[in-house]
Design a protein that fits this description.
The protein is 27% helix and 26% strand. By secondary structure, the chain is of the alpha/beta class. The strands form 3 sheets. Strands 3, 5, 6, 9, 10, 17 and 18 form a 7-stranded mixed β-sheet that branches. Strands 13-12-11-14-15-16 form a 6-stranded parallel β-sheet, sandwiched between helices.
């Protein structure tokens, strides 16, 4: 069948809108009609070359849609089911999965970043017959996608797909950093560096455990209102004042119990490290450019027992955390309605990335296919 998709062809160039050929789903795969797909900074990192991936590839990995067809041996889904598609397919059998680390699944991780499904092939071809990769089992900037059954979570049909699509990536990344990776305790002091959607989700989660003070840090003063809306008690524009000094002032000169760096910026990561107290924890939730390094003062890691922890995808367990986030959204606790600020057509996808490069986005842009 044919599907219209946005294709990444060359680093630094706009995505091209093309009609591609999409193969039928194979064993344990499903065909999903994409209703909405969030525009994530990780997609931009591929376009800019900060996260290398060989083109051509259909980007997009925050997908919500409707099952159109099921392949052989599919048992958990039926045609018509509403689903969130994930870029994680935990096998449940490898060393990491058996030890509770689904986000590090040894069986699926190599395929997630290669642009193929679990059999090592893509279901997409262009009009010249060339294979087109699909990012992270999804390739969501497309009218239709074929994805593994185990990378989908069925949801109730009254859940708005254009809002919950972003539960495919940014929301669990930020929420899980707080709840799973750090296990933030009630009334702890928390600093969140970077108020994009991962950072806002971390703020939202920290507010739910009554973190105080809950300090948001960003280089854009325009982020203050939305950070406050999500629960921040204080906001620091790091271009105007030193966040380390200010955070110490707000925490009785001690430093924050927890800091979360959610933008993947080495300078901010160092500031976040400096802002935590002795015995405090820094959680790195943002994806840095592959070549980036951080020169932490290791002397103080030992002397002051500062902890630095990385987290991928919020260290979630998909079958538990994704349904929980859906329930929290439907109860009004997770503020997706405030996070999804702009809906665009597939043909406008490059406008979203241009706005992201110019730092003109104060929430999530979502591509809607209808």
């Amino acid at each position: 069948m044919e599907t219209k998709a946005a294709v990444f062809r060359k680093v630094g160039e706009p995505l091209s809108i093309e009609t591609l050929e999409l193969d039928e789903p194979k064993e344990n795969e499903v065909l999903v009609k994409v209703v909405a797909c969030g525009v994530c900074h990780s997609d931009l990192s591929i376009i800019t070359g900060d996260a290398p991936m060989s083109p051509p590839v259909v980007l997009g990995h925050e997908v919500a849609g409707i099952v159109e067809k099921v392949g052989p041996r599919v048992t958990k889904l039926q045609v018509g089911d509403h689903v969130i598609c994930l870029w994680l397919v935990p096998c449940g059998k490898c060393f990491q999965c058996l030890n509770g680390n689904q986000t590090l699944c040894e069986a699926s991780m190599p395929y997630s970043f290669s642009g193929t499904l679990l059999d090592g092939t893509s279901r997409l071809k262009d009009k010249q017959g060339n294979t087109v990769a699909q990012l992270m089992f999804t390739g969501g900037f497309s009218q239709y996608t074929v994805t593994p059954e185990d990378s989908t979570i069925p949801i109730a049909k009254d859940v708005p797909l254009d809002k919950v699509a972003i539960i495919g990536c940014c929301v669990p990344t930020g929420y899980g950093a707080v709840v799973n990776a750090a296990k933030v305790k009630p009334r702890s002091s928390v600093a969140v560096f970077g108020c994009g959607c991962v950072g806002l989700s971390a703020i939202n989660a920290a507010a739910l455990v009554s973190a105080s003070p809950l300090i948001a840090v960003d280089v854009e003063s325009a982020k203050q209102k939305i950070a406050t809306d999500f629960g921040a008690t204080h906001f620091i524009d790091s271009t105007k004042e030193d966040p380390v000094t200010k955070i110490q002032e707000l925490t009785a000169r001690r430093g924050a119990d927890y800091a979360f760096e959610c933008a993947g910026v080495p300078e901010a990561q160092l500031q976040a490290f400096g802002s935590i107290r002795s015995g405090g924890m820094l959680v790195l939730a943002g994806l840095s450019p592959m070549a980036a390094t951080i020169a932490f003062p290791s002397f103080f890691c030992a002397l002051l027992e500062k902890k630095v922890v990385g987290t991928l995808y919020g260290s979630i367990k998909v079958s538990v955390d994704i349904p929980k986030l859906i329930d929290l959204y439907m109860a009004g606790t997770i503020k997706l309605d405030k996070m999804v600020v702009h809906k665009i057509k597939l043909e406008q996808i490059n406008e979203a990335f241009d706005a992201m490069l110019k730092r003109q986005i104060l929430g999530r842009w979502v591509v809607t296919m209808e």
